[in-house]
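TL;DR need structure tokens for one chain.
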Amino acid sequence: MDWIRFGHPHFLYLLWITPAFILLYIYAFRQKRKAYQRFSSHHFFQKLTESVHFGRQKAKVILMALSYTFLVLALARPQIGTTLEMVKRSGLDIMIGLDISASMLAEDIKPNRLLKAKHAISSFIDRLEGDRVGLIAFAGDSFIQCPLTIDYAAAKLLLDSLDVDTISQTGTEISQAIEIAAASFNQEEDKYKVLLFFTDGEDHGKRAIEAAKAVANQGIRIYCVGIGLPNQGTPIPLRQSSGEFRGYKHDRNGTPIVTKLEDVLLREIVQLTNGNYYQATPGGAEIDRLFAELAAIEKREIEERQFTRYEDRFQYFLGFALLFLVWEFLLPESRSNKPTAIREEI
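>> reply
TL;DR here they are.
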């Protein structure tokens, strides 16, 4: 329901107390009726309980429950959307591909390639306004971690959950990530589509160039941010879940595996798709340049219906809570007593 929201939704959990309270009253009421029935044959007891009005007792409990319910709703701070407008926004569809292969654990860029890439992606998402963003994780296999969305907080949450253990198939297959990303875009458009890779460029599939040529015809621009150092090989450290170092990754012959940034392939991919290549730096200047370049691209205009203003309406709920509370206080629990008649019986 877009027309209503709560400023403090965590207070709504207190509503679970209401059914518990009602169930407890039902149990107590039944016990009271059983006790009453045991003594109902005694004439004197009937005289003493003539004033008991079980209907009013039930009504008072219902009023207390309603008062509590509306009080909780008031604490949750309900807000009603008062203005529905057609809002125009402009933006691109941006699929971000994150390399989560084992080579991304190399520490030639601190703290390691994967953490550096995730930080850069998070920084990039923080700057978006109106663009739809999605996430693709790839290694030896690829999958969509987050479809295109304008919910940037959800995208960042899903980004944080990615790790090298997310995909069990080893290796790196960039071509498959390109194909999956292309299929996620609107096939009826031939522009407004950007594929952004954060990777060290190591590719074991050797089909990335063909895949890039295919998506270039669909109006998809590919940009790559190279993560790592291109001039020297770096071993891949292995660590416990606690972060404790336990050695380096080896091949079948026991030789340490070294990895380096393969930027030649990445540069060729972006050239084929009218994109650009950036190398990651410790200060993140590449994100500034990347964002500036994307800002200059023509963007799609989209009309959306939005509630543009929400106003607090807790006062009404608080008013009802007080109304039911006063009603419960003023409602007598019993009928008028007849003490004179009882004394005469005695």
